[in-house]
Amino acid sequence: MQEEPLFLSAHWQYLAMVNYEVPPEIVMPYVPKGTEPDFYNGKTYASLVGFWFAHTRVMSFSIPFHRNFEEVNLRLYVRRQDADGQWQRGVVFVKEIVPRLAIALTARWVYNEPYISLPMQHSILVKGSNLLVEYRWKFKKEWNFIKLKADAQPQPLQQGSPEEFITEHYWGFNRQKNGNTMGYRVAHPQWQVFPVQAHEVYCNVAELYGSQFVPYMQTPASVLLAKGSDIEVRKGRQISG
Questions:
Q1: What is the CATH number of domain 6-239?
Q2: pLDDT at 102 over 70
Q3: What is d(CA 241, CA 229) in angstroms, rounded to the nearest whole number?
Q4: What are the residue ranges spanned by the domains of the chain?
Q5: pLDDT tens digits for 122-133?
């Protein structure tokens, strides 16, 4: 199948991923037509992800004041079998937060993705052999955050590991307003990860994502910090249900 044209290119850095086991019945309402939940060792997951979006270009154009920004999202894991019988493993977003209203509006218009705009901050600091990463977003006058302390030396992903499952999803899928499903490819090399030593998370889960997630987003099953890389997001196409 012919590759779709390039829509966006950027460099994703320091992806903090806090991963929670959630039951399939929590995932199912978000699964777009033509896809199914993706399981790891018989379990389904939700990930609270914060990262730094850098050097962003849309349709090969660099937009002033919109090149570098934070993003925090809650994502679930799905997969789809294409016409050749190959599995496309991807994500579906519950909500995505960015600091620029124009970015949120564009993503909602082009992809119908659930973006909102909130005040955001981040901090990335190397102290000796440690890497300290923090992402913050202000919701209802209160700062929510993800804080990680990790080894400053990245390591390769281990085959079959939870980290590989979480990071090796190269498609985005979402439900369009007419009920059909859009799929778009996100291309990047395999990421290295920084071994995480400690983490702290505060998030108003109920009001940001829904009370159904609250019982399951208390203690994470795993926490990882990916180094990131250059990425390419291809234009979306409608897929059959």
A1: 2.40.400.10
A2: yes
A3: 32
A4: 6-239
A5: 999 999 999 999
